[in-house]
Amino acid sequence: MRYLPLTPHDRQDMLATVGVSSIDELFVDVPEDARLDGPIRDLPMHAGEMAVEAHMKKLAKNNSAAGDMPFFLGAGAYRHHVPASVDHIIQRGEFLTAYTPYQPEIAQGTLQTLFEFQTQVARLFGVDVANASMYDGSTACWEAIVMARRITKRGKVILSSGLHPHYVSVAETMARFTKDQLVNAAPTLEAATDGANLLDQIDDDTSCVVVQYPDILGRISDMSALVEKAHNHKALLIAVVTEPVALGAITSPGQMGADIVVGEGQSLGVGLQFGGPYVGLFGCKQKYVRQMPGRLCGETVDSEGKRGFVLTLSTREQHIRREKATSNICTNSGLCALAFTAHMTLLGEKGLRELAMLNHKKAVAAADRLAKIDGVSVLNESFFNEFTLVLDKDTRPIVRKLADQKILAGVSLGRLYPDEGKLAHGLIVAVTETTSDEDVEILATALEGELA
Amino acid sequence: MNMLTEGRPTKQEANIAMPEPGAVQTHTGNRALMVDEPLIFETGSPDRSGVDLPEAPAVDSRLGGLERDDAIGIPGLSEAETVRHYTRLSRQNYAIDVGLFPLGSCTMKHNPRLNEKMARLKGFSDIHPLQPVDSVQGALGLIYELATWLKTLTGMPAVAMSPKAGAHGELCGILAIRSALEARGDAREVILVPESAHGTNPATAAFAGYKVEDIPANADGRVDLDALKARLGPDVAGVMITNPNTCGLFEPDMKAISDAVHEAGGLVYCDGANFNAIVGRVRPGDLGIDAMHINLHKTFSTPHGGGGPGSGPVVFSEALAPFAPLPFVEKSEDGHFRLVEEETAEEHHASSFGRMVAFHGQMGMFTRALTYMLSHGADGLKQVAEDAVLNANYVLRSLEDVLDAPFAKSGPCMHEALFSDKGFSNGLTTLDLAKGLIDEGYHPMTMYFPLVVHGAMLVEPTETESKAAIDQFIGALRSVAERAKAGDELLKSAPHFAPRRRLDETQAARKPILVWQEPEEYAEAAE
Fold first, then answer.
1. How near does any CA of chain A get to the CA of B5, in Å?
2. Would you say residue B510 lies in a domain?
3. Could you list the residue range(s) of the whole structural domain that residue B350 is in?
4. Counted domains in chain B
5. Which of A137-146, A276-285, B25-34, B500-509 has the lowest mean pLDDT?
6. Which of B305, B338, B370 represents a domain boundary (last residue)?
7. Which of A75-89, B9-23, B211-225 comes out lowest in average pLDDT?
8. What is the mean pLDDT of chain A?
9. Residue A385 to residues A126, A132, A441, B72, B87: CA-CA distances in angstroms?
10. A383 contacts on B by Cβ (under 8 Å)
11. What letters, b where the CB count within 10 A reaches 16 and e where it falls short, cover A3-30?
12. If pLDDT is split at 50, 70 and 90, which confidence band does B345 have?
């Protein structure tokens, strides 16, 4: 077995040192009827690299890779070009195979990158501070809701209808157990977001208002009025960003006054990977920092006065506070945070702005092309790199049929909102720097064929 | 001009004076390969970039008047600088690739590189979670295959794949327990957790709305079965037990514990963080448990990555299987894989407690874990547990004469050896010993955990260390332990040779600096 260095001779020597004659004597505490006498049945025996690789490649080939065909899916996960050096950096063994930096003297590499990551995220979001990452956007969103409850001591949570339905589902699952009261609805196929409607629902029982920006249908709207009303009622505004590249082009939620900003960082540095691992982003105003969940990296000095970094404010965390912790989170998404921060460093502000405008303008051009198809209209008046097409029929069969023709057309709202019949006419289309004019033309032609 | 024929000197001049240690100072403060690296905010520039992008099409923007007009403040570096920045930082990290990493309960084993290669196959890395299921049959098949391995290895009938890490898996298990109890109209309030448990256990139970009470341990470091039985009753929803436990011991009464909890109407959660000790040798399903999370990043070698991502699938008993979260993968008779999610859940999984996360879980970790399992096979995994346990016992018996091992007399340990700070003198602590180990070239063991042992040191060598590597580690730990017992003052200021000396964590917490800010003189100059 290529990963196991002990030889039979080593094992004999070591058993002798331990003072037992067989390995079985080391398992004496296991009740006899629970001890297995041989390898577990119904599983294969060990295999060499070539055999394993052949097996895995067979599975991999049975998937349609996004890069091999016109591809327009978004809705919370986006296909961007990741520079080659990012993958090189995250495969450095010193990053890849390190543990959580609990011994800071020999973990400054991880700690300094986390400090840089936190700063980048805070600045991107326009807030004072950010943590060292969460599992993903959906769990970061739920943790923000829990944090708002800790701050406001209230249980009414108003979810925008533009919040990603999976994020809503996660919140619903958790609220069933915490008894928070969620106010939410499915979106409607309108150009305007539901901001006005949300305004009416904010009252003195409200803990927080959760608004996605851009929202699930790709719409963007100013949330300043919501912030003002929320603050008038001593409630918090939580902004959710599932496409961080957008913030290279549009005003940050922090600038509009959001108290907590969370997001999905997958777009930068992390590939699609069928949904995970991704990286949850979490930032907030300075005054709430001690209520934040998750790991935080902070600057300090060593005993010779040299600058260094450590995990800090750990009295919020489970390993110290146990049942009184701000969250049960332990592992975060360190390596994905490294990928995010390396990609962001490669871009820099100039590159980020250019990337954002490239995404946006390609999306505008694509939306204009697709709007010319008979039976197709573009819902959005404004958007970043994702917009919603409205057809006169259920888009689910169309998406499936085009996938069979090696065109991945977008995400049908029918899949995300199976209970909302009319929404199935909507199709979310994302366009990034990886989308070519030819891809758009292929999609347009295919849709024309379907609708003819 | 004469040709220089002597060449460069190849030998140090004889009889030169050797300086006192510390007398040599460098202009940069660096010491050869040990170099400090500034922050990107100190070296980068907002108008520098390591990425070349094509021109955007000439169309008007449609951003609804929300164009970002402030300076974002994100510096950029060229690719050359970026690669160097992170490479230099990486060299300040300890990692498994660098040496033995004996962090107890963390299972820092070798991360096979085939796993990395397989996770990067475009058929896994470049597929979107919401693609039509017919276009991702291989990915669903992989999840199904991994699920089958996990069920078979644990002897449990069901598994939830989506939890993102161990603590997320705990939450999944506890929510399933709560759902099952509520479904039978039997709301209960208390979860019992041993004092020796990982902090995530009580935090999870509290997060799910339960009151947490301690289960007492006996003198052997194990659950006190009689005390547990005495506490069970109609208010107890269940127990969370780590097995093997955090003292590195197998709970011999596990089956009896499960039976007693079931008899009292509760359910049993097992923390599977220490599954590496028994994988392929013992099936937790045979011990009567109802739910257990498996850290793919421990037992199944997916990289820890400096703190994640993890992956924490949860196996379930028949009693809890119907309540498992969405989504999951089913296989039809014709070999087609279907994804059961919101769109399809109603008919198939009406009592699911819902969704815990967007999309389907940590696919990138599934790919690596399955690669690992296929490489080892049933025989190799059994050998993994045996070697992990043998290595830990070898460490225990090689050091129990110099370090106090509080439970060594009660028999063999499992995959980790527990020591205490008993016998250290001159005020030296476990922390000092740990920092001394850093100077010896090792990452320290887990310190001050479990809480039930004073100055605890939990050593988990794992199965991927050779006897020679373990012998060398034992020698180093023995030496530092002897110094701690002898009261060696120099340990108090260790580490002496790491990239940083001891860091001031109190200052970090008192006035937290969590993001970089331009130094004041710059800010003033800019005004």
1. 44
2. no
3. 115-370
4. 2
5. B25-34
6. B370
7. B9-23
8. 96
9. 20, 27, 17, 20, 33
10. 62
11. bbbbeeebbeebbeebebeebeebbebb
12. low
What gap in Å lies between CA B310 and CA B299, rounded to an integer?
11
- What's the mean per-residue pLDDT of chain B? 93
Res B348: pLDDT: 61
Cβ contact B73–A89 (<8 Å):
no
Same domain, residue pair B418 and B477:
yes
Same domain? For B342 and B405 the reply is: no
| Subunit contact A85:B83, Cβ cutoff 8 A | yes
**CA closest to B471 among chain A residues:** A14
In a domain, B413, yes or no: yes
Nearest CA-CA distance, residue A66 and chain B, Å? 6
Residues of A in contact with B500 (CB under 8 A): 104-105, 108, 302, 306, 308
CB of A147 closer than 8 Å to CB of A134: no
DSSP assigned state of B278: T
Q: Say yes or no for a CB contact (<8 Å) between B303 and A96.
A: yes
Q: Please report the domains of chain A, with CATH numbers, ordered by start residue.
A: 66-81+349-451 (3.90.1150.10), 84-343 (3.40.640.10)
State how beta strands B417-419 and A260-264 pair.
unpaired
Which two three-digit tokens encode residue B302?
Answer: 């997916």
CB contacts < 8 A, A to B, total 736
Same domain membership, residue B271 and residue B163? yes
Q: Are both B486 and B405 inside the same structural domain?
A: yes
Closest partner residue to A60 (CB to CB) among B91, B123, B255 is B123
Interchain proximity A348–B449, CB inside 8 Å: no
A175 to chain B, closest Cα gap in Å: 10
Q: Judge whether residue B524 has pLDDT over 60.
A: no
- Residue B468 forms part of a structural domain: yes
In angstroms, the CA B296 to CA B304 distance is 10
* A393–B contact, CB cutoff 8 A: no
Q: Is the interface score ipTM higher than 0.95?
A: yes
Specify if B188 maps to a domain.
yes
